[in-house]
Amino acid sequence: MKNSTFLNREKPIITSMVQGEDPDRIKELVKASLSDGAEAVGMQFCKLKPEYRNRKTYRELFEFASPLPVYVTNYRHFDNAGKSDELLASELLELAECGGTLCDVMGDYFDHCEGELTMNEDAVKKQMHLIDELHKRGAEVLMSSHVVKFTPAERVLEIAFEHQRRGADICKIVTGAENMEQQIENLRIVNLLKENLKIPFLFLSGGECRILRRIGGALGCCMYLCVHEYDEFATKAQPLICDVKAIRDNI
After folding, report:
1. Count of alpha carbons within 13 Å of 213, Cβ hemisphere only?
2. H or E element: which one contains 104?
3. Is the dihedral of CA 46, 52, 55, 61 positive or negative?
4. 3-state class of 26 per DSSP?
5. Which phi and psi angles does 144 have, rounded to 5°?
6. What angle, rounded to 10 degrees, do the helices at 153-165 and 180-196 form?
């Protein structure tokens, strides 16, 4: 049984990204995140050790997080290094079958390329088929493109429209900002996405200027990606849950 949805929320949903090598650590972070006020959980399975990559563990973790919705990723990094995209996709389907609420389909699945958005027709067809299969299993789908550098508005919109065309329920784009001028342009881009895209979106920025990660929800992003604490696996660019909750609830 699926946990509650990431879609059609009254406020941008505060999602705690919990990353660990074993189920006990993930559960520890989930519990702490709930105390912080998290409204959803994100589990990055590329960091879970191979001996725990099975249906029993997945169901156990999703049940532990219930009734919060769970966003799952299965990126190419860490313990997934060397796996084919076909295998990663089959594992993503397994995560959906076990109760994952929102599944992350990389925009360059089946054709690894810079900027994580393939335009290869065969790869795109495979992505659309994967999205359809995830939907059949009751999962929602987020398509992600980690560009990880400042990207002009026109290109961001192109990526977003492709995510939408391929059948994603949520568009996620991560660019960058190294100075105030780029940071201000990123804020403008959020508004362009809000005006032009028909699906919810998450627009994030890496680099030196990361204010977007803290106020994006107030401008139109559908969710925040946060952490309970900065341990060895946490993404340092992601703000603390308690900080984001204070900003969102009082802005």
Report:
1. 23
2. strand 102-106
3. negative
4. helix
5. -120, 145
6. 40
- Per the document, the length of the chain is 251
What's the token pair of residue 180? 């105030």
Which one, of 130, 132, 94, lies nearest residue 111 by Cα? 130
- In sequence order, which residues have a C-beta less than 8 Å from that of residue 34 and are 6 or more positions away? 68
Contact residues for 181 (Cβ-Cβ < 8 A; gap 6+): none
3-state DSSP assignment of residue 88: helix
CB contact at 8 A, 202 and 223: yes
Those residues with Cβ within 8 angstroms of residue 195's Cβ, 6 or more apart along the chain or in another chain: none
160-218, pLDDT tens digit by residue? 999 999 999 999 999 999 999 999 999 999 999 999 999 999 999 998 888 999 999 99
* 3-class secondary-structure state, position 134: helix
Tokens representing residue 115 in the block: 């900027």
